[in-house]
Amino acid sequence: MGKAVGVALSGGGVLGGAHIGALEALEELGFDVRWVAGTSAGAMVAAAWGAGATTQAMRAMLPRFNRHMVDIDRALWRRRHHQPLGLIRGHRLAELVRYMTGPRRMSQLPRPVAICAWDLVTCREFVFTSRPFALREQEAEVELRSDLPVAVATRASFSIPGLFQPVVLGSHLLVDGGVVENLPVRWVRYLGAQDVIAIDLIGDIRRQPTRPSSFGQVVGRVIDYYVNENERPSRELADVVIHPQLHAKGPLDFEVLQQCVQVGYETTKRQLGPKIELFSGTIPKH
User: Could you give phi then psi for residue 33, rounded to 5 degrees?
Assistant: First the structure.
């Protein structure tokens, strides 16, 4: 039996294709991935994995992720009142997730998975999980749910504020979990993992000096800095953090998806190969 590990998959827009390559590399290195938590793009891969999809099946789905999946809400130009809360509806991408996961609810997934989102109304984190667990007292404000359809939970997790419209859940407006927890290492541990590998698509931007040359790059740089700061405690919780070096013109630059998969695969093999002995290979007791 391979080395039992949990994997945390960060957000990062289309860079999330690297997660598929990373999971593929982990398999080849002999790891037995048993628990996965994901945020935003990482949530999409986590959902597919949780439903039992192989990395080959995920690769086969990639051509369907293209600009036609961007369903812009035309009401933005028609309404004077009650403007939509985001530019993109997100329904088409959610349908692709539903295609991979079926109509299952989180509690019906065959594998242990956690998906993160954030509520604009209460400013609380929501964690959608396929396995129940008890929260520590200091995390009591986190909302745990297992009753949502997987596609809806994932749709909430990838809803970048302002770009995608939030998911309405009762009185809540759920958006991208990367607002508070872009690298969900602690939820992998809550699921039961003793050893955790984190795939971090953002990395420490302070080590990557970049001079923005456009308004969009200025905004992107500020967002990356904020996300980097909320990732720092998560990196310290992981046993190993993998940092694929990736670049895209924006979160929906679908043309780089295939390249991201390959970079994720190669980086994981290169960075993790020499560290295999760090892992016990034991399956923790629940």
Answer: -75, 120
113 by DSSP, 3-state: which? strand
pLDDT band per the 50, 70, 90 thresholds, residue 231: confident
Q: Which residues does residue 113 pair with via DSSP β-bridges, in sequence order?
A: 36
Structure tokens at 136: 């520590």
Taking Cα atoms as reference points, which of 98, 230, 202 lies closest to residue 154? 98
- State pLDDT tens for residues 180-213: 999 999 999 999 999 999 999 987 655 667 777 7
- Kindly state the average pLDDT of the residues 153-167: 94
Longest distance between any two alpha carbons in the chain, whole Å:
61
CA distance 15 to 12: 5
Q: How many CA atoms lie within 13 A of 262 on its CB side?
A: 5
The alpha-helical segments, DSSP class H, found in 1-84 are 17-28, 41-50, 55-61
DSSP secondary structure, 61-92, as one string: HGGG-SGGG--B-GGGGT-SSS--SEEE--HH
Distance CA 6, CA 279 (A): 11
pLDDT per position as a tens digit, 16-52: 999 999 999 999 999 999 999 999 999 999 999 999 9
Q: Are 242 and 198 in contact (CB under 8 A)?
A: yes
Looking at per-residue pLDDT, the higher value among 47 and 251 belongs to: 47
| Residue 167 in tokens | 């998911």
